[in-house]
Input
Amino acid sequence: MQPGDRDDRDPFEDIFSEIERMMNGMMNGNVDVRTDSMGTDAHIDVQEDGDLVRVIADLPGVDKEAIDLTCDGRRVTIEATSDRHEFDERVSLPVRVDEGSANATYNNGVLEVVFERANTSADIDL
Output
């Protein structure tokens, strides 16, 4: 790079990549350290309650229509955008869930998604 040239790279990208690499080594690959263009992270809490798993996320200022949720049974992805914030969060769940059982509510900036635990075994017919 020549004097006067701009470096448009995020100055923290290398740091976050290294933190993610180290955390994945300790957590068996379940950590996704991400930054977004607005530098906003949602506060997310995961709770187990008997046969239910709850994911609660604070998404201040986001309209319900601007939230996109996906789940593969092991991980929930929350993507949301408002005028001031962008959220792109991936949350590893403590147990496998039945993604078809998802029930989501959004009220006053708080998203709550409730899943039923998935059956841990399946009957096999011969």
